[in-house]
Amino acid sequence: MRANFGQHFKLTIFGESHGPAIGIVIDGIPAGTPIDEEAVARQMARRAPGNDPTATARKEADRVKIVSGLFEGRTTGAPLCGMIENTNTRSGDYAQLRARMRPGHADYAGHVKYGGFNDPRGGGHFSGRLTAPLVFAGSIARQLLGHRGVTIGAHIAAIGGIEDTRFDPVRVCADELRALQGQRFPLLDPALESPMRELVEAARLEQDSTGGVIECAAVGVRAGIGSPFFGSVESVVSQLAFSVPAVKAIEFGDGSALSGMRGSRANDAMHMEDGHVRCLSNHNGGVTGGITNGMPIVMRAALKPTPSIGRVQRSVDLSTSSDVQLSITGRHDPCIVPRAVVVIESILAIALCDLAMDDASTHALQSETI
Amino acid sequence: MRANFGQHFKLTIFGESHGPAIGIVIDGIPAGTPIDEEAVARQMARRAPGNDPTATARKEADRVKIVSGLFEGRTTGAPLCGMIENTNTRSGDYAQLRARMRPGHADYAGHVKYGGFNDPRGGGHFSGRLTAPLVFAGSIARQLLGHRGVTIGAHIAAIGGIEDTRFDPVRVCADELRALQGQRFPLLDPALESPMRELVEAARLEQDSTGGVIECAAVGVRAGIGSPFFGSVESVVSQLAFSVPAVKAIEFGDGSALSGMRGSRANDAMHMEDGHVRCLSNHNGGVTGGITNGMPIVMRAALKPTPSIGRVQRSVDLSTSSDVQLSITGRHDPCIVPRAVVVIESILAIALCDLAMDDASTHALQSETI
Amino acid sequence: MRANFGQHFKLTIFGESHGPAIGIVIDGIPAGTPIDEEAVARQMARRAPGNDPTATARKEADRVKIVSGLFEGRTTGAPLCGMIENTNTRSGDYAQLRARMRPGHADYAGHVKYGGFNDPRGGGHFSGRLTAPLVFAGSIARQLLGHRGVTIGAHIAAIGGIEDTRFDPVRVCADELRALQGQRFPLLDPALESPMRELVEAARLEQDSTGGVIECAAVGVRAGIGSPFFGSVESVVSQLAFSVPAVKAIEFGDGSALSGMRGSRANDAMHMEDGHVRCLSNHNGGVTGGITNGMPIVMRAALKPTPSIGRVQRSVDLSTSSDVQLSITGRHDPCIVPRAVVVIESILAIALCDLAMDDASTHALQSETI
Amino acid sequence: MRANFGQHFKLTIFGESHGPAIGIVIDGIPAGTPIDEEAVARQMARRAPGNDPTATARKEADRVKIVSGLFEGRTTGAPLCGMIENTNTRSGDYAQLRARMRPGHADYAGHVKYGGFNDPRGGGHFSGRLTAPLVFAGSIARQLLGHRGVTIGAHIAAIGGIEDTRFDPVRVCADELRALQGQRFPLLDPALESPMRELVEAARLEQDSTGGVIECAAVGVRAGIGSPFFGSVESVVSQLAFSVPAVKAIEFGDGSALSGMRGSRANDAMHMEDGHVRCLSNHNGGVTGGITNGMPIVMRAALKPTPSIGRVQRSVDLSTSSDVQLSITGRHDPCIVPRAVVVIESILAIALCDLAMDDASTHALQSETI
Questions:
Q1: What is the pLDDT of residue B360?
Q2: Is the minimum CB–CB distance between C109 and chain A shorter than 8 Å?
Q3: Percentage helix, strand, coil, to 5, in chain D?
Q4: Which backbone phi and psi does A150 adopt, to 5 degrees?
Q5: Whose CA is closest to B144, among C369, C290, C117?
Q6: Is the pLDDT reported for residue A366 higher than 80?
Q7: DSSP assignments along A170-184, one per residue
Q8: Across the interface, do A211 and B240 touch by the CB < 8 Å criterion?
Q9: Do the beta carbons of residue A91 and residue A81 sit within 8 Å?
Q10: For strand B291-292 and strand B297-303, is the pairing parallel, antiparallel, or unpaired?
Q11: d(Cα A24, Cα A3) in Å, to the nearest integer?
Q12: Contact yes or no for D285/D169 (Cβ under 8 A)
């Protein structure tokens, strides 16, 4: 396992879907940072299940208990551990769960890796439920970034092939991003909510599921964050983004569309604007050479449809080494995309926090007294 | 900077385009591994410049000198350092290079990050030339993987909008991948070479450049490699892939197309085949839950067009804080894609090596005597 | 903070002495490992306070609740989180705790580092109470090592200047080490228990404290574990050992006494014994070139006296920037050494586990199919 | 192998004693730092062999060639690679070197770890020659620290049992440390040079060797550097110090002597002095709770005698699995201690640099704009 992420804003994730609790340890938060626990709760609620017809009926309050690292409302500088109890778990036939591999899930790959000892209840550690601790960590990262004028927001860029309009990568602003955060079904073009919901409902009725795309932006990020090579903004964001179950593609700026452009178009021309360097376009999504250039950061993550579906599927039973017909019962999300919006925002916040601190440490010996 | 990559097959990259040398230290190669230096040279030659009209005219032999970690043709278990001298460098007007920001390049972002002290000659450490050490590391990784029956190959999936056919993700095989390695302009549909070359030549004549897409596959990889969350195959591969200058999008399996599918299609049904579990389709590109499932691994990387173009561009001069018209002279690749094929293959090889060793260490206490 | 330790058996520690709980996340335990929770409890009891006149009167059950990574008695391969609730905490005058710096404690150094925001209650994250999670991690490491024939044990080598005899570094055996584990006041020469206890009691009556030395050995460790340079056995063990509050010196084998020897004596001559290479002496404590050589591993850790003492001490009040006379009230250990024996054993177990897995991963590509 | 050290001032070491070159990559040096190459050369000369009767007759200039990361005399922010060519190597009978295990050396342990593939020439990667790259890295660290008023110096605290006086841990000052740096045989009591040299010469004449102790201090280090637990100053310094071949014991402040003290003495009382908090004594060596407290940092490292001696020793031949009489020929140091003084200083400088940057990054979000 690689349960650790980050070099400065350091995460350690733990927990299983139906175990006693899930949680995360965050090491590296500056001491004395006030934590707004209501703001944390608001972010958690955006991901929490049971609140929308597109989502699973499993009800979880997803209240985070901060076990360490906080004293009188401020961080102590010691590792901050946030835990979320699993309350609404249901038992099942574990032997069958262990033997019958759900297509599209981690079941078979995980079975081989862990020799069949992985927790089979609700996907165990592979569960999408583990994104709750990431949203918690993201909510802390956003508070740190917010104090410096960074705002992050996202919208549903597509569901099942219906595409929302895209951010204007030059003019996207904090107000627009904050407004999106307040929506349960965030779209740039609100007229698309109905057809998208209908598409999801149609899938649900057919015991099927559907995927989608999330577009996320960060504004107010200064130039100079990130590194060439292994610590590029794209490298660190994508490492984290692909940690989210269901994400299968990531792009920055115009992304794959850049592959069809001429350099004369893809290059974002620069000019001086009120004494500051600015680009006239933002095909590169705010990142050049792996480093932020002061323009809005824009990225997209494509999510595959939830693999848990009620329809009969062909699969195998490892206990008998035979083919089986499988029908997954239980509570599932016909479309995970609306709940995943805050997860992708959190990913971007965490990555930017970690990279911004990296940058600071390299400058430390220039600006501080040892 | 984050010059280190990997937890087991550990890389440390160094060097600048016009400095004395570029290189890489690889720590974690098992002692006693025979290194085939001719095979290394063959991989290096696939990336080396000066061999094709689509590429820069800069001639570099890109011969790797192994400085440590090798004795009598076998690895010693100590870190292996491979160095490549820079021979064909040209001096320029550094002051101007430092002040005039090339659009689409790392120039401005790097200037802010490094306070203007980054090496301005040929892009310094940001240069695509630094992918040569990655190809070297990849050539070692491929030898390790090759002994275990893993074969990696890639083709030009698109250049400037002209798309090659795609791998059959279920039936792609070692022979097909090896055959691609032998081609200087690897395509599944060879009839596309002419139109693609014409498109590149047209861009070159207009002092412009063009991007493209590379599709890469690995076959023979056993199930069970990778981890949920931060060490998922997609996380580790993408962290490394986005280290490659110009890469702006990554997808696995059907990638972004999965976002438009129903779960009933995206889920790869499983069945028993000669006593082994196999999927009937491979929309997930050989990775589910972040872990390999025994099917071929398939990924695509989209590359933006080379930002160095001769055409006049709008930009800024930081020494005067004024707008300027910039025309980049020198030797450039009108299309980096053919040379980048081996780079993407190397990325996948390195990531799989690192993850496979991760897996081994967690099983170590089960299978070995301490 | 650097709350993470290890490259394979990876720890993340969290918690404060008077917060809701303390704990540790362990990542990298092989899936399917049976965990003997009674054996864990026995190790925890050896460190738990309130059981001996040399120790603090604070009563803590130190029962570990395993929150994740365990299913039906076996590890799942996912991160294992163990938590210990703090039950017997007492409130105090925090403002005063924050201002008045206890000599010998982390108070002042921590105040500067964390800008005064560190948790002042009971030393917060600096508390020796945080060694409880280390003992828990050590108890897991010992179970892993035990299956491979490794036994670890330690004794009180000195208290307040009274010295126990030392291990015979060639002949120390598993039975001897196991017998020591069963003792609350482990000594090689049991006749020293009375004078040592009297010395501690004398200190306690004078509201003072005393330090000591712990000698620890591991037998059954195969040759070939560890690395030259940064991953030497001594490097990894000492990094962890100096994490234990109060440890101020570490030595391996004959340690500092080696500095006064001739090479002809310090070099451990080798010979063949029943077909195996063995040393005739063990001045190097089982480690040469940073790597185990198959001989017993022997190390010693010197602990300073507990800084919490009732006697009046000169110190400063940061709220008034003035000198003060300070008398620490509350429950303290007049001598931490007996309770620290299991902590040092745990340190050695954790380090050996981590290093043994390191070794395995480098050999992985030789012995496994990727 | 674990060839990497550090989280901010990050090292990667490579090379073998008789290979083409040895070197180190340093990642994390702030861009724009002027490098004084003459100062580097002075530090390298202090460790270089062939300059003193206590040392090996092997002559090496140990000139460092900076291969990357430097442009026009200043660091670029990219990884800095320093290489040292091996010029004065002698060939030998490798087969014999591989089979006959030198007592006290890494030979046997390394043979087992690396399956006999480790480079046998001159100890390969295990050679003390690899401390040259550490001195180079230390010389860079010292320049960074020097700009902030930190001075590091050391003396020979003992050779073969003859003990120099110790630093006054409260009053040791920069001038005293700088004066020691200028000496080839640095002692606080210069009268001891003759008896110490005689003792070494006597060992040499008997084809034997002798060990010693080095005491090292750093002054001008501000309070607040380091962390509780795994990143304590003692943890990080000792991890690095035990990387140095021959080091077998480390202590901080009064070290092992603290184990015999009462708390009332070991606790360093504090008072206000010109508005600053200062300790009246410094038994803790400038570190409490793992964090610097503003007092001088004082540590000692005990080195065992060089294992390479001409005297006949009992050992084994692995090619025949038989006992042999071994006499090591070649050029050896009868006493490594004088040359190791600068190595220990370098260790302390590197560790402090790395930790100081750690501290900075945690404060980054408080003091900088993201």
A1: 60
A2: no
A3: 35, 25, 40
A4: -95, 130
A5: C369
A6: no
A7: TT--HHHHHHHHT-S
A8: no
A9: no
A10: unpaired
A11: 10
A12: yes
What ranges make up the beta strands (E) of chain A? 4-5, 10-15, 21-27, 65-68, 70-71, 74-75, 80-85, 151-159, 162-163, 212-219, 247-252, 270-273, 276-279, 287-288, 291-292, 297-303, 313-317, 322-326
Contacts for B257 with CB less than 8 Å, ≥ 6 apart:
none
Closest CA to B352 of B54, B138, B60, B52: B138
Cα C32 to Cα D56: distance, rounded to the nearest angstrom: 53
pLDDT value, residue B87: 84
Instruction: Name which of C25-34, C57-66, D238-247, D339-348 the model is least confident about.
Output: C57-66
With 80 as the cut, is the pLDDT of residue D296 above it? yes
Taking the Cβ of residue C271 and every Cβ of chain D, the question of whether any pair is shorter than 8 Å is answered with: yes
Span A327-337, pLDDT tens digits: 888 778 899 99
- Rounded CA-CA distance B367/C11 in Å is 22
C172 touches chain D (CB under 8 A): no
Its pTM stands at: 0.96
Inter-chain touch A248–B270, beta carbons under 8 Å = no
Closest CA to B6 of B353, B289, B345: B353
Q: Provide the token pair at A189.
A: 């073009």
In whole angstroms, give the CA distance from residue B190 to residue C250: 67
Q: Average of pLDDT values for A155-183?
A: 97
CA distances from C309 to A236, C56, C104, C327 (A): 48, 12, 10, 7
- Residue D364 pLDDT level (bands cut at 50, 70, 90): very low
Residue B314 and residue A299: Cα distance in Å, rounded? 25
Q: How many CB pairs under 8 A join A and B?
A: 399
Interface contact B367, partner A, CB < 8 A: no
pLDDT for the residue numbered C359: 67
Among partner residues D2, D27, D78, which is closest to B119 by beta-carbon distance? D78
Closest CA of chain A from C1, distance in Å: 6
Quick: pLDDT tens for C254-271. Answer: 999 999 999 999 999 999
Q: Which residues pair with D80 in a beta bridge?
A: D26
Interface test with C, best of A17, A119, A361 (most C CBs within 10 A): A119
Cβ <8 Å between C31 and A117: yes
**What residues of chain B score a pLDDT lower than 50?**
364-370
Compute how many other C-beta atoms are within 10 angstroms of the C-beta atom of residue D130.
26
Is there a contact between B361 and C365 if contact means CB atoms under 8 Å apart? no
Helix, strand, or coil (residue A11): strand
Whether A314 and B270 lie within 8 Å, measured CB to CB: yes
Q: Tell whether C337 is within 8 A of chain A (Cβ).
A: no
pLDDT digits over C128-177, tens only?
Answer: 999 999 999 999 999 999 988 999 999 999 999 999 999 999 999 999 99
User: At which residue do the structure tokens 């040499």 appear?
Assistant: D204
- How confident is the model over C231-241, as a mean pLDDT? 98
Q: What contacts 24+ positions apart, CB below 8 Å, involve A272-281?
A: A272/B316, A272/B321, A272/B322, A272/B323, A275/B321, A277/A223, A277/B101, A277/B108, A277/B316, A277/B318, A279/A170, A279/B103, A280/A170, A280/B314, A281/A169, A281/A170
Q: Do A117 and C25 touch (CB under 8 A)?
A: no
Please provide the DSSP assignment of C244-286 as one string: STTEEEEEETTGGGGGGSBHHHHS--EEEETTEEEES--TTTT
Chain mean pLDDT for chain A: 93
Average pLDDT, chain D: 93
A8 neighbourhood in chain C, CB within 8 Å: none
Q: What mean pLDDT do residues D276-300 have?
A: 97
pLDDT at residue B56, as a whole number = 74
Give, rounded to a whole angstrom, the gap between the first and last alpha carbons of chain A: 36
Contact D358 C225 (CB under 8 A): no
Is residue C369 pLDDT above 60, yes or no?
Answer: no
pLDDT in tens, B169-192: 999 999 999 999 999 999 999 999
Q: How many CB pairs under 8 A join A and C?
A: 173
